Amino acid sequence: QVDRSEVIKSNLNPVFAKIFTVDYYFEEVQKLRFEVYDSHGQAGVGAHDDDFLGGTECTVGQIVAQKRVTKPLFLKYGKFAGKSTITIISEEISGNNGYVELAFRAKKLDDKDLFSKSDPFLEIYRIDDDRSEQLVYRTEVVKNNLSPIWEPFKVSLNSLCSCEEKRKLRGVVWDYDSRGKHDFIGEFFTTFEEMQKAMGENKVQWDCMNPKYKIKKRNYKNSGVVVLLDLKIHRVYSFLDYIMGGCQIHFTVAIDFTASNGDPRNSCSLHYINPYQPNEYLKALVAVGEICQDYDSDKKFSALGFGARIPPKYEV
């Protein structure tokens, strides 16, 4: 098992927020198997008391080539699981390894429950070029609270906005229902560019709007307010970032002179001194050194040896 999604309760058409990161190798056939279970407890998905709803197999190459793959689910022994299907969406993680930490809260949300207050949770969607929406993150549910403060969460910039600050994002607030029929409270639209105004002591807020109420109610203002309390950008710097930032690299080699390499006069030894061509050690030094020398500031390369017996005492 590589990973598992979160559990979505009482829903026959779940959209999972969990993102699975898989290394892609063009030259390899990478087979994947997806299995769906009906969870009955907290022991963990796929436990013995969970019902197997179906599974399917495909390759990473198929998902990458098609970007969106929908496949039927099969029960054991190759039987179809009714009309059940699973849709898998792929996207490349760009070289930008940064991620952002977001902290949201809401104020004065509409009350959707009759005998108690709403149980709100927030979903963030990325709107792609084809106008389709991809779920980026779903917060936890805050019970019986019209002014919830959700736990801060982290998400990669690639997942949030495809590393495009002006890409439109949609936030949706729901009132949680244990039967899966969540009540829509309201929505707002923004961009990561606008979100960045919340860095430091500043805060950014949006009216949480219900389009139906806006049409029907003349004095309708909003269904609450969503506030971005804090935003922190974390960037994981790549090797190239360090080089372009002025980092200097010093190239040093250490050569094994112990007897384990054999007599340098023996053609089977890695240290064999061949009068016609370089030995394996020299080939390795040249292969690595030719690349590293461009990043070495003084072009002076230290060469160290260890394990040699030096005359006249021939001690290591």
UniProtKB/TrEMBL annotation:
Species name: Sylvietta virens
Query: Which SMART domains does the protein's record reference?
Result: C2
Q: Which GO terms describe its biological process?
A: cellular response to calcium ion
Name the gene behind this protein. Cpne7
**Record domain C2: where:** 1-73, 80-207
* Annotated SUPFAM superfamilies: C2 domain (Calcium/lipid-binding domain, CaLB)
Q: Molecular function terms in GO for this entry? A: calcium-dependent phospholipid binding
Can you quote a single GO CC term?
Answer: plasma membrane
Q: What is the lineage of its organism?
A: Eukaryota, Metazoa, Chordata, Craniata, Vertebrata
Q: What is this protein called?
A: CPNE7 protein
